[in-house]
Amino acid sequence: MNLLWFRIGLRNVFKQRRRTLLNVLALGVNTGMLILLIGVLRGFYLITIEKTVDLRTGHVQIHAPGYSEEKRRFPLDIPIQHADNLRKAVDDVEGVVAASPRILSAATLSNGRERAPVVLYGVQPSAEERVGIVLKGVKYGSMLTDTTRGVLIGDKLAELLDAEVGASLLLFAQTKERANNLVDAEVVGIFDTGFGLADRGAGLRAAAVCVGIAGHAGRSDRDCDPYGQSARSAARAR
């Protein structure tokens, strides 16, 4: 009985060739579009992960005890003690290419007319260059150095504040005691990472200068890149 129905169905397929062709084309187009959509979504997903690692998290983060529970407020009063010793220990771990200390703080940049909230990253440029991509994306101006007193901002933020290299901005932030602090910050460079949120909402300053603003010498977090740019790409490809 089953064989009979199969023969009837097969004869119908070849008898109605136009309908069969249309059905095959429709199924093929739909399947192809589905595969394309899945590929595009997966591509966006992988790019988002890559950008997040490069711009913000690194592959590994080390925080002081209690920092993770309070990280939404960017606490400056929970620093990592003996940060230099920790960095040396991390650098000695097999597979770690670079480690960079960071101080994160909520801040506001203003040109006197417009203002924009930003996440202020206090970094050590000599170490940060090997961990993230922001310092590699400087389009205008100069790179940060460990003693630079200016600020590095994204191109979207520069457009919003109508700021060029050499412009003087007002930087408002709080110390670890939550006292208000207002300082002048010269724009020493403008970067373009290709990631709009980062280019609009982040500013980088030398950690040594941020310590003076924040009022402490510890580090609130530490990001580590255990693979390096080329090895990351190879690891994802595998």
Largest β-sheet summary: 6 strands, mixed, barrel
- The rough form would be described as elongated
* Helix segment tally: 9
Q: Class by helix and strand content?
A: alpha+beta
Give the helix proportion (percent range): 40-55%
Q: Beta fraction of the residues?
A: 25-35%
What is the straight-line distance between the termini? 50 Å
Instruction: State the total count of DSSP E strands.
Output: 9
Task: Give average pLDDT, whole number.
Answer: 80
Low-confidence stretches: 216-238
Trace the largest sheet across and list its strands.
Answer: 2-3-8-5-7-6
Along the chain, the helix and strand elements come as HHEHHEEHEEHEEHEHEH
Round the Cα radius of gyration to an integer and report it: 26 Å
- Give the number of domains: 2
